[in-house]
Amino acid sequence: MRLLVHDRLLGIGDDYWIEDEHGRKVFLVDGKAMRLRDTFQLKDAHGRVLIDIHQKMFALRDTMVIERDGEGLATIRRKRLSLLRNHYRVSLVDGTDLDVSGRILDHEFAVEYDGELLAVISRRFLSLRDTYGVDIVREDADPALLIAVAVCVIHLAQKEREED
Questions:
Q1: Whole-Å CA distances, 29 to 5, 18, 77, 101, 144
Q2: Are 114 and 108 in contact (CB under 8 A)?
Q3: Of 28, 117, 141, 159, most Cβ neighbours within 10 A?
């Protein structure tokens, strides 16, 4: 499954659509402005909230939290002792971890579980400007969760670059 994300140099408060390979709107990333912490909602094409994403308050490192129906789903933060600056860990509430690595700010990275590829995020094969693809490799993967992970790691990497 390939999803196309049209992201015009986003900030908090910006909204953008994610389409399937046929141009149908599948998800809306709704940035919430005027909040104390960075907050997004991932909605379906009918406006129903699928996932809430927000910055964790009072964390030692920048951390994003993903929730579904008010319940925690995952926590995302940059790996501590990584030689690669762009390496993130997604800790799911069931105790499993996903690894995200690659050139995050270039939108060229992968999401893996236990060495198995789940999704590839890339601009490489797209001719549309300000668009990147999310290719979901495993059929049983949760597309909404993988989109939320991509939104979070890109947001965290952009914040880190701004603070440097």
A1: 10, 8, 20, 22, 11
A2: no
A3: 28
Q: Is 104 helix (H, G, I), strand (E, B) or coil?
A: helix
Q: Which residue matches tokens 């009918």?
A: 46
Which amino acid does the sequence have at 120? V
Q: Please state the rounded mean pLDDT for residues 153-158.
A: 86
- Whole-number pLDDT of residue 10: 46
* Cβ-contact 100, 149 below 8 angstroms: yes
- Over 90: is that where the pLDDT of 160 sits? no
Tell me what the pLDDT averaged over the chain comes to: 84
The torsion defined by the Cα of 80, 145, 97 and 160, in degrees rounded to 10, comes to 0
- For 132, list phi and psi in degrees, rounded to 5: -135, 155
Residue 34 binned pLDDT confidence (cut-offs 50, 70, 90): very low
- Chain segment 101-122, per-residue pLDDT in tens: 999 888 899 999 999 999 999 8
Q: Who contacts 83 (Cβ-Cβ below 8 Å, separation ≥6)?
A: none
Find tokens 């965290």 and name the residue.
156
